[in-house]
Design a protein that fits this description.
The structure holds two protein chains of two kinds. Chain A has nine helices and ten strands. Chain A is α/β, with parallel strands linked by helices. Chain A folds into two domains: 173 residues, P-loop containing nucleotide triphosphate hydrolases (Rossmann fold); 65 residues, no CATH class. By secondary structure, chain B is mostly helical. Chain B starts with a helix and ends in a 10-residue tail after the last helix. Classes of the chains: A alpha/beta, B mainly alpha. At the A-B interface, strand 6 and helix 4 of A face helix 9 and helix 10 of B. The structure holds adenosine-5'-triphosphate (ATP) and magnesium ion.
Chain lengths: 268, 361
């Protein structure tokens, strides 16, 4: 299955910069008020090949962000195993960078200092100053390096969060609706930017989105979750070469299929 | 019809609107700034109030009261008031000009801003001088004319300056140790469960106790009353700083930690680069409260045991029933404490530039 996915563009993906991420029978839940257990993930298994771009779709509150937190290593799964290149994921690591649903920039740091956060935390900022400038330029914020987060618009803050992730040269980029707050024009532009970043750097991507078109335009494979507790309902391979076209009839057909899987087929 | 009419109107108005602004803007942009003179009448109110003060002080004789035949420094006070009235007159004339340059306008704007207060102060001093020195309505030793405070300063300035210096020294030591310890304790109990287990109950039990209640015991246990006072001032400062630092650290948005951890942050980084900066606004609230508490302890400690400082000075003046001298010391105290709070706020505004919409002191 996965082999087929990579086989789509074998020459485009320099796999040494990317990680293979595997999840085997992962279950996870939270303690709900009242002493009960809220089951959120129910037996999720998936395999992301090095350099693969995988999108995750599912109803709100089904457990997508929860899975991302497990993959990031911010929480340990109740049962099941998550691995990166065969090694168990036990803690966060800068090779797996998350762009969260909220930009969560540090309000006491300028945009530049926010983007430099990862390098500073890892103690390599001195050598990496130009990387910070580059990342800011990539997301079009080089003019706002010295602004504070409260001086940014929602979309600009989200782009700053993206830049903060990119400076770290991650092997896996975990994106939780990173473009959710952007206006539709900037959103399309950023989608293109994201694709070229992925193609240039070759990292693996796990993207959560609510936007079916976005998933189909960007990803090689779309995984669809059921309502909570989340199971994988189906996987859809987007067997189209890049650069893709938004008007592509094949993508429109796939969209129909995704809607069907989400139980929204009637609205087609 | 009406729709067409309203549609037409902007089109008709447009040529006018387009022509008018350049006519007004162009000369201002090309010609050098013109000095515009418009007399600032309201400024004369401040001049009048202070001239009245000078006149009342100089022209009417003092009424003998108690031991006092004539109050000292009456002449100097009256002349000073007249000198200020002259200064306000000059400022009024200067404020009547526009286009004097940035520096001058800063001063004249400040003057315009102050005039209402200057009027009130001038009239207030006049009333004070009249009720005390001129009519004897308010009698010594509890009341004295404003000019007599000049006398108190002239007689005791060396002792007063020395007292103020000693107070500041004591206060600085106490606040430094209190703020440092309070901050460290606050971070520790906000961060570490074990520190919380051990320190929190102690804080809960002893924190609400007024440090002044410990004064007699502290004077006994510490080698010097100075050391005891430093300890108690530190206690007064440290408690609110610890509590607020703690609540600041504990209340940090957990998402900040998630972000930092995924970016490779160590525990050290999480504490000092995430928790502490996020908690700083709270720390400053703690410092503000702590400063207030430290002033109380300082003055009480100096009144009760320390043989120097402004608190001691008050007590000493009280021994002679020298109320004028006490007013003088209180004024010095007010200025010092108010300046310290202002300094704290200035530091805060510097450190927390990233915050928007904070209270201005
Ligand atoms: N820390 C937590 N404690 C308790 N319950 C939680 C916690 N985090 C998430 N949940 C619950 O887990 C479920 C899944 O949450 P999650 O954030 O993963 O949803 P999601 O699929 O990302 O939704 P959305 O698309 O709206 O972002 C929700 O019902 C939520 O209430
Ligand atoms: Mg989510």
């Amino acid at each position: 299955m996965v082999a087929a996915a990579i086989a789509l563009q074998p020459e485009e993906i320099p796999a040494q910069n990317a990680s293979r991420i595997q999840a085997a029978h992962v279950r996870h839940g939270f303690d709900a008020p009242g002493g009960e257990r809220l089951e959120v993930l129910e037996d999720v298994s998936l395999d992301i090949a090095p350099g693969e771009f995988v999108a995750l779709l599912g109803p709100s509150g089904c457990g997508k962000s929860t899975l991302l937190r497990l993959v990031a290593g911010l929480e340990a799964a109740d049962s099941g195993a998550l691995t990166q290149d065969g090694a168990l994921i036990t803690r966060p690591d800068p090779s797996r960078i998350v762009v969260f649903q909220d930009p969560t920039l540090f309000p006491w740091r300028t945009v530049w200092d926010n983007v430099a956060l990862g390098l500073e935390a890892q103690g390599i900022l001195k050598q990496g100053k130009s990387r910070v400038d580059e990342a800011l330029k990539k997301v079009g914020l080089d003019g706002f390096a010295r602004s504070y987060p409260h001086q940014l618009s929602g979309g600009m803050a989200q782009r700053a969060a993206l830049a903060r992730a990119l400076v770290n040269n991650p092997k896996l980029l975990i994106l939780d609706e990173p473009l959710g707050k952007l206006d539709s024009l900037t959103r399309l532009e950023m989608q293109g930017e994201l694709l070229s970043l992925w193609q240039r750097n070759g990292f693996s991507v796990l993207l959560v989105t609510h936007d079916i078109e976005e998933a189909l335009f960007l990803a090689q494979r779309v995984i669809i979750f059921s309502p909570r507790p989340a199971r994988i309902v189906s996987e859809i391979f987007v067997d189209r070469p890049y650069p893709r076209h938004r008007g592509d009839a094949a993508l429109a057909n796939l969209r129909h299929e995704v809607l069907n899987q989400l139980g929204l087929g009637k609205s087609w | 019809m009406t729709a067409a009419a309203t549609l037409l109107r902007p089109a008709e108005a447009f040529p006018q609107a387009a022509a008018a602004p350049p006519a007004r803007v162009a000369p201002a942009a090309t010609a050098p700034p013109v000095k515009i003179f418009r007399f600032y009448w309201f400024g004369l109110a401040a001049v009048a109030a202070w001239a009245l003060l000078g006149a009342v002080t100089l022209l009417f004789p003092d009424k003998p009261a108690g031991f006092v035949e004539e109050w000292p420094y009456t002449r100097e006070f009256g002349l000073g008031a007249l000198a200020l009235a002259a200064l306000w007159l000059a400022a009024t004339v200067a404020a009547s000009f526009r286009g004097l340059g940035k520096r001058a306008e800063f001063v004249t704007d400040l003057y315009r801003y102050s005039v209402p207060w200057l009027v009130v102060l001038g009239l207030g001093f006049t009333l004070w001088e009249t009720l005390t020195a001129k009519t004897g309505e308010l009698e010594p030793p509890f009341f004295a004319p404003p000019s007599s405070i000049i006398d108190a300063y002239a007689q005791h300035y060396a002792l007063l300056a020395d007292s103020a210096f000693n107070s500041l020294k004591l206060l600085a030591k106490g606040i430094f140790w209190g703020a440092a310890a309070g901050f460290a304790i606050g971070v520790a109990i906000g961060w570490s469960k074990r520190a919380n287990y051990w320190i929190h109950p102690i804080l809960r039990l002893l924190g609400p106790l007024p440090p002044t209640a410990l004064l007699p015991i502290a004077f006994f246990f510490f080698p010097t009353s100075h050391a005891a006072s430093v300890f108690l001032i530190a206690l007064a400062t440290g408690f609110p700083v610890a509590i607020l630092t703690w609540s600041g650290v504990a209340g940090v948005n957990k998402a900040y930690y998630d972000v930092a951890r995924t970016l490779g942050a160590s525990e050290w980084f999480l504490i000092f680069r995430v928790a502490v900066p996020a908690a700083l606004p709270q720390v400053f609230v703690g410092l503000f409260m702590g400063l207030g508490g430290s002033f109380v302890v300082l003055i009480v400690a100096e009144m009760m045991g320390v043989k120097s400082g402004l608190g001691w000075y008050l007590d000493w003046a009280k021994g002679y029933a020298d109320y004028v001298n006490m007013y003088g010391a209180l004024i010095v105290m007010t200025i010092i404490f108010s300046s310290l709070i202002s300094l704290l706020f200035a530091v805060r505004d510097r450190v927390l530039v990233w915050q928007k919409g904070t209270v201005k002191w």
